[in-house]
Amino acid sequence: MIPFCKPSITETEQNYIREAADGRICGDGPFTERVLGLFSEKTGLSRVLMTTSCTHALELAAMLLDIKAGDEVILPSFTFSSTANAFLLQGATLRFCEINPFDMNVDVSHMESLINEKTRVLAPIDYAGVSCDMDVINRLAKKHSLFAVQDSAQAVGSRYKGRAVGADADFSCFSFHETKNYVMGEGGAIHIKDPALVNKAEILREKGTDRSRFYRGETDKYTWQGKGSSLLPSDILCAMLLGQLERFEEIKHKRLAVWNFFNDRLEELEDAGKLLRPGVPGYAEHNAHIFYLLLNSAAERDALLDFLRKKGVGAVFHYIPLHSAPNGLAMGNRPEDLPLTESCSARLLRLPLFPDMSEQERVHIVNSVLEFF
What is the pLDDT of residues 119-131, one digit of tens each? Predict the structure, then answer.
């Protein structure tokens, strides 16, 4: 079976992990510092804090905004549960909006129609590493005095109008989970646009203390400053990520080579009306996180999934829309509320994609899809 994803781990990462194990292994150690420096160099994002996951990065954003009961957050239903839970945990009410079938990102016109006097946050995601249109979302946020929290879990290394994805939102959150382009097993990061909020963020992620300032020699002791949690990843995990970021361009180039191979070889099926390939707007430079196919029907998607698995291809579906998941239904949502989201989710299939995929594997995947049709 060709797996859906497989991290590219080399001796570089393994050697860094061994080196980290001989030193300080808790959070915000020397490898964390090196990761932040290299991440800034590669992306241009400087006000970044590492977290134990992208989930925790999103939760930290919600805490920084002091989201509370009565506040409303607008987000696409076609996303992972973390995007919703981050705000739900603070007591917010969720308003799910439609997606644009071209790139599977948020339909901004529907998002705007949901805004009311209780709305506090617009929370788009960057599906498949393709940036949502942040200029439009920011204009909408400014018009209604809202905040933009961008779930960029899949978009490390992507760009929007020449800028690093995440540079334009009030908060942007990234993932380094095993399934992402650059991995540390479990881990994430948050970019904070307003420099005045960085100190507050450090306190929230360091158990409510100013220990970060203590480690930098800015105070002779650290004390409890307010509410907080423990959101720092181990330096051992950051040691793995350092090796990944040192291979930043190599990993991106390898993934793009696989993505482009699929895109070129399956063009004939789109021309024949059999399926749609991933849509990439002109403003977006993607990172080849996902290569998906949008079939003409749910039945055909399921049949292709079954066929590919029998061929040894680990293709998978993706999100069950949040509004029609059990918890979404319990909140009073109905499947028919978002027909485009329901339709796209039922017809979407993701092909395996990982940096070290061999030519034989990618040929077999494409040939299997062609054989099905």
Answer: 999 999 999 999 9
Query: Do 280 and 150 lie in a common domain?
Result: no
Q: Indicate which CATH number applies to the domain containing 56.
A: 3.40.640.10
3-state SS assignment for residue 52: coil
What is the number of structural domains in the chain?
2
Q: What is the DSSP string of 137-200?
A: HHHHHHHTT-EEEEE-TT-TT-EETTEETTSSSSEEEEE--TTSSS--SS-EEEEES-GGGHHH
At 49-78, the pLDDT tens digits run 999 999 999 999 999 999 999 999 999 999
Decide if 223 contacts 210 (C-beta within 8 A).
Answer: yes
- Diameter of the chain by CA atoms? 69
Query: Rounded to 10 degrees, what is the CA torsion of 337, 342, 344, 348?
Result: 160
- Answer with the one of 225, 246, 267 that is the final residue of a domain: 246
DSSP letter assigned to residue 294: E
Residues 6+ apart with CB under 8 A from 88: 94
Global pTM reads 0.96
